[in-house]
Amino acid sequence: MTTIAVLGAGRIGESLLSGLLNTGRPPEELLFTERSPQRAAELTEQYGIEHVDVPSAARRADILVVAVKPQDIEPLLDEMVPVVAPDKLVVSLCAGLPTKVFERRFAEGTPVVRVMPNTPMLVGEAMSAISAGAHAGEAHLELVEEILGSVGRVARVPETQQDAVTALSGSGPAYFFYLVEAMVDAGILLGLPRSLAAELIVQSAVGAAAMLREGEGHPVMMREGVTSPAGTTISGIRELEKHGVRAALIDAIEAARDRSLELGRVHETDE
Ligand SMILES: NC(=O)C1=CN([C@@H]2O[C@H](COP(=O)(O)OP(=O)(O)OC[C@H]3O[C@@H](n4cnc5c(N)ncnc54)[C@H](O)[C@@H]3O)[C@@H](O)[C@H]2O)C=CC1
Ligand SMILES: O=C(O)[C@@H]1CCC=N1
């Protein structure tokens, strides 16, 4: 039995706990720590998972999953460092934080794996990218793949690519939600009831995603398949091009990558 403790059960920590429970992992194999007592009580009531303190998590769990905001990492590290032995695996879900931020604080040899997951973990459809730190080996990566593979897909990437991954798949769901929100608003403008507009757009998104996943051709070909000569779609595409939507998305993702790099730099030392 592998016990997993999630340190910081906010949106992504809860998504992981909930996703693992949904895939049949018993609540006895899961623990969590949480700064907010109210949130801790709510989660225990909802999921039946035990809330513990950091020393207890470090003693009882094999894997410690760090899921606090990057800005909150230092106080948590202060609590972890005295109690985390090198036989534990530390898994960081924190955007922007390089594995060396953890390694330089923990006992020599402590394995650290950096992960960028995303919230569709909640419904078993996460995209997670994982990178080994200096002391994490094949067995550690396989363990993390097994856990995250139960709540979605997993790719191995060099750590140097993690900031780009964060911008694409870590933040990506927010951009899709934003597009859906805007398209539903368009339906309202055209006089459709909100519930109907939402149903039309959400099912269109699910259908388009399913076609993309089937992998039968390139997205450009799929878009061309919708775009009839002198038809409706090309009139819409012209507006998207006029408003620079493609460039806006590229700029948005570049800005998210830059912010990820910046979050990591805050924790750099002169070492
Ligand atoms: N929300 C998302 O879509 C994604 C978030 N992440 C990363 O996951 C991490 C968490 O993000 P969210 O869940 O969105 O943030 P959040 O703010 O919803 O959750 C963080 C939780 O940690 C708790 N916390 C803070 N310090 C603590 C401490 N010392 N001990 C115990 N609990 C503590 C807070 O009370 C809060 O419930 C971040 O590092 C973020 O970069 C990664 C991928 C996607
Ligand atoms: O916005 C954030 O910083 C986090 C990391 C990736 C998605 N959400």
TrEMBL record:
Top-rank taxon: Bacteria
GO CC annotation terms, alphabetical: cytoplasm
Pfam family, one: P5CR_dimer
Compartments reported by the entry: Cytoplasm
Domain Pyrroline-5-carboxylate reductase dimerisation: 159-263
Enzyme class: oxidoreductase
UniProt-recorded name of the protein: Pyrroline-5-carboxylate reductase
Transmembrane segments: none
UniProt GO MF annotations: pyrroline-5-carboxylate reductase activity
Domain Pyrroline-5-carboxylate reductase catalytic N-terminal residues, every copy: 3-96
Keyword Cytoplasm: yes
Pathway given in the UniProt record: Amino-acid biosynthesis; L-proline biosynthesis; L-proline from L-glutamate 5-semialdehyde: step 1/1
Positions of NADP(+) binding: 67-70
UniProt cross-references to SUPFAM superfamilies, sorted A to Z: 6-phosphogluconate dehydrogenase C-terminal domain-like (SSF48179), NAD(P)-binding Rossmann-fold domains (SSF51735)
Function: Catalyzes the reduction of 1-pyrroline-5-carboxylate (PCA) to L-proline.
GO biological process: L-proline biosynthetic process
Keyword line: Amino-acid biosynthesis, Cytoplasm, NADP, Oxidoreductase, Proline biosynthesis
